[in-house]
Write a structure and sequence with these properties.
386 residues, alpha+beta, eight-stranded antiparallel sheet, two-stranded antiparallel ribbon, 22 strands
């Protein structure tokens, strides 16, 4: 799913566009015990509850593709009877009216979701009557020829509110606030099936993770039956390792700077596209070649790539470079610079020592205090005043 398709489904989570038919929920304590359950028609909830739930559902479709949101395909064997995709298909087709299937789903989540505290499993079924579109992109609500039926699961931490004082209007007094167990926005979730090309794709699932550095690996493997992808942080670390191992002692400042500048150019060129910039193994190799990495360094590229990222893994460009700033780090100093000004920083040998050189032609501040260089000071002292 791309940004436009995710946004189209996300827009259904408003009171005026609501297509949710049923909601089920299970509150689980830190010892993996089911404490209470919910099974209702969604629109039978109070207006306040509907508003809060929709905020949770929108959050589970928020974030950046490749970081918070990941498209995953089911292995073929999971689509056979007894497979994870097969089970999710039955759950969707039941429209959450089969109590045994719902209980089995809760049991599967509890078994594989590693979370030491209380949490709330929310599961909804919705039917979206996909409007047709004219050649100019205008929606034609009377031209629908497909209904997108899907389930969305959100797993939300439940935490005790902070202690504090509050004002009691009934007694007109300040008193100790009653602490409540609060359902927070989701840490994990998934949408099944995918909504690809504005149509149902039962071969994939869209996974959500609040944490972009660590994914719920066991949840992905056991409940969804999918291969665990590299997290955003894992992709960055793998790419850094790949650059260092491939270039070896040719991993010099100018080459690495050139690689990141090219990545930023790729991202900028496609910033208006609905899909993120994704680099396959061959495309990363071509990137290295374009940045001047010599052929003898690339002879072991395939081996290094498979070791660092995995043979069939792809890398999201925005995960492996920072488009907002470059960071240059030494054991004692960290320099942050805007990418378009990175060429200001040079490497030079001064008095036999390797140095990073930064021009000081403009204003310079130390802890907010403007200071002058010797040249600037000499210029000011040389000024005459009439």
């Amino acid at each position: 799913m791309n940004k436009k398709e995710i946004s189209e489904i996300k827009k259904q989570f408003t009171p005026e566009n609501c297509t949710i038919t049923r909601i089920c929920g299970c509150y689980v304590d830190g010892d993996k015990n089911k404490k209470t359950e919910l099974k209702e028609a969604f629109l039978s909830l109070t207006e306040e509850e509907i508003f809060k739930y929709m905020e949770i559902f929108r959050k589970a479709l928020s974030g950046t593709i490749g970081k918070n949101l990941m498209n995953m395909e089911f292995p073929l064997e999971q689509e056979s009877e007894g497979g994870t995709q097969y089970f999710l298909m039955k759950l969707r087709e039941s429209r959450l009216t089969d109590d045994e299937l719902i209980e089995e789903f809760y049991d599967r989540v509890i078994e594989c979701y590693n979370y030491p505290e209380n949490y709330y499993i929310i599961l909804i079924h919705a039917s979206y009557d996909i409007p047709g579109k004219s050649s100019d992109g205008t929606e034609m609500f009377d031209a629908s020829d497909e209904v997108f039926e899907y389930i969305l699961c959100c797993i939300c931490p439940v935490k005790l509110s902070k202690a504090g004082l509050c004002y009691n209007a009934a007694t007109n007094s300040i008193q100790d606030r009653i602490r409540d167990w609060i359902v927070e926005l989701p840490d994990t979730g998934f949408l099944f099936p995918q909504f690809n090309d504005r149509s149902t794709d039962i071969h994939g699932v869209l996974y959500y993770s609040k944490n972009t550095s660590e994914l719920a690996d066991n949840f992905i493997k056991e409940l969804l039956g999918c291969t665990v992808p590299l997290s955003a942080g894992g992709q960055r670390d793998s790419f850094n390792t790949l650059v260092e191992d491939t270039l070896g002692n040719a991993c010099v400042y100018d080459t690495v700077l050139n690689i990141h500048e090219r990545l930023n150019d790729l991202i900028e060129a496609q910033k208006d596209e609905p899909d993120p910039v994704i680099l396959t193994k061959n495309e990363v190799r071509r990137l290295f070649e374009d940045c001047g990495v010599e052929e003898d360094r690339l002879q072991s590229f395939d081996e290094h790539y498979e070791t660092a990222a995995g043979e069939k893994s792809s890398l999201v460009a925005s995960n492996i470079t920072n488009t907002r700033r470059f960071e240059i780090k030494t054991p004692d100093v960290v320099i942050h610079v805007e990418p378009e000004r990175a060429e200001l920083i040079e490497t030079q040998i001064i008095n036999g020592r390797k140095c990073l050189v930064i021009p000081m032609e403009d204003d310079v501040e130390i802890n907010g205090i403007r200071v002058y260089t010797k040249d600037n000071l000499s210029d000011k002292e040389g000024q005459s005043y009439e």
